[in-house]
Write a structure and sequence with these properties.
Elements: H1 2-20, H2 29-32, E1 38-42, H3 49-65, E2 69-73, H4 80-87, E3 95-100, H5 102-109, E4 119-127, E5 131-136, H6 144-153, E6 159-162, H7 167-177, E7 183-186, H8 190-198, E8 204-208, H9 213-218, E9 221-225, E10 253-259, H10 264-280, H11 282-292, H12 301-315
Parallel strand pairs: 1-2, 1-3, 6-7
Antiparallel strand pairs: 3-10, 4-10, 5-8, 5-9
Length: 322
């Protein structure tokens, strides 16, 4: 009889913890998190804008969350390799993916066999200031319209460098739909594309302004247009492709995603830290402005999912190329 009473008492103590999702003595998962270091997976090589943004956030997240936030680059297949690593990680809040809208192109192109629903979308924590359509100065072309005209007269002559299945691949396809008759060449990440353009192995690239600004000043390179919807605040001098009369706009988001099943309270605690850094930390804001001409931007889980689903629907028009 005593054993039965003891078991009943134990059950009465344990069941409320199960029912409320508490981990120990009144502590919720979010309150206890993080207990250890957090790994941020960037599915691209080090040195690019995605890596830069991830590491900038990691620096301030370490201060906000009280544990080291460590960036790990796991590149391959346009972002699919790193995304899958997170997809297959335990949903304990200690592995998170930082990626761009490339994840949508991974799906559209068939490079990925997963969807956004296979992750927990946490937030959008930034917008690229644009992958500037850039050519060498010795081509004698100044505008996107002039570039289109040249390719119509010389179809298939020029090579445009991309990363297959990544965000800039989608942008390149929008440019082709707008009339740019070029060959798409898989040329690696931003630094590889830049080297190939300067070396004469490519004729056109689309890279963030941060990496090409000095070459624009010398005239070695020329920016013919920005393939996003609106001119960024900090890049007023480069017209958009849309302004020049061509429907080719592809905004690039920076996105945080957790493995499916990650506790929602943990994600909200993470989001609160990201939002605080993004919208209230002047040091962070100056860093992204000085390096990549970005403005601070944050969208919560609900808005982020809506924006990404809308962008996926727009990108679906590119399936004709695959």
């Amino acid at each position: 009889m005593k054993k039965v009473v003891v078991l009943i008492l134990l059950a009465s103590l344990i069941m409320p913890i199960w029912a409320t999702g508490q981990t120990e003595a009144g502590t919720s998962p979010a309150q206890a998190w993080p207990k250890e270091n957090i790994q941020v997976v960037v599915p691209f090589n080090a040195g690019g804008d995605t890596d830069f943004n991830a590491r900038t956030y990691a620096k301030y997240l370490t201060k906000e969350l009280g544990k080291n936030v460590v960036v790990v680059n796991t590149s391959g297949n346009g972002g699919v390799t790193g995304s899958r690593k997170v997809l297959e990680s335990p949903p304990d809040g200690y592995t998170v993916l930082f990626i761009t809208s490339a994840i949508l192109m991974n799906m559209i192109s068939g490079a990925a066999d997963y969807t956004l629903e296979d992750f927990e979308v946490a937030n959008i924590a930034g917008i690229r200031a644009g992958d500037i359509v850039t050519i060498r100065g010795d081509m004698g072309i100044k505008t996107f319209g002039e570039l289109v005209d040249y390719t119509k007269k010389n179809p298939g002559e020029l090579n445009l460098g991309i990363t297959t299945a990544a965000h800039n691949h989608a942008t390149a396809l929008y440019l082709k739909k707008a009339g740019l008759d070029v060959n798409l060449v898989d040329a690696g990440g931003t630094s590889e594309r830049m080297a190939a353009l300067l070396g004469g192995h490519l004729d056109i690239i689309m890279n963030p302004l941060g990496g090409i600004a000095d070459y624009l000043k010398t005239g070695e390179l020329v920016a013919v247009g920005n393939p996003i919807a609106n001119r960024p605040k900090y890049i007023p001098e480069i017209p958009t492709i849309v302004e020049q009369g061509y429907q080719a706009a592809n905004d690039g988001y920076y996105i945080w995603l957790f493995p499916k099943g990650t506790n929602s309270e943990i994600i909200e605690k993470f989001n609160a830290a990201i939002e605080k850094i993004c919208l209230t930390n002047p040091e962070y804001q100056e860093t992204i402005r000085a390096s990549y001409f970005q403005e601070p931007y944050f969208a919560n889980r609900e808005k982020a999912l809506r924006l990404l689903n809308d962008q996926y629907e727009e990108m679906s028009a590119l399936k004709e190329f695959f």
